[in-house]
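Task card 7
Instruction: Convert sequence to structure tokens.
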Amino acid sequence: MRRGSTAYRAVLLVGCAALLAGCSSGKSKATKTPPTVARSILSAISSATTQTTAPMTTTSAPASVDLSGSWSGKYSGAFTGTFQLSWQQSGSSLNGTIMLSTQPGALSLNGTVTGSKISFGTVGSEAITYSGTVSGNSMSGTYQIAGQAGGPWSATKGG
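Output:
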């Protein structure tokens, strides 16, 4: 039994109650708790405080995958092409840029990664959104344009 546990407190309360029961109330002459009661209470408290328990173990959440860096990918479905991603990750937040083979210039992205799930989209617009999963140096999922047309996408890190 651990100190502070419910069982420990119960043993202490029973012991206190037994000690109080052995005392007289309202009499000028004090009575003593019988020695056998006191010994059994002390024995119970002693065994409760010296009983060993298994050490507490905590399970840490697995380290989050680091998506920072360059990724190369492709998409198909309503539109077909390739893309280059550049991510900076801080905790579960993603910030970066995407360059699509079908559009000049880089577009800013924000996203999140929680466990193996990823979601990201263009900044300031819901024009293109991506969702999927990450496993090691690859990720894949589906994309949507303005919540309508879309298709599958996939990317690899460093490619």
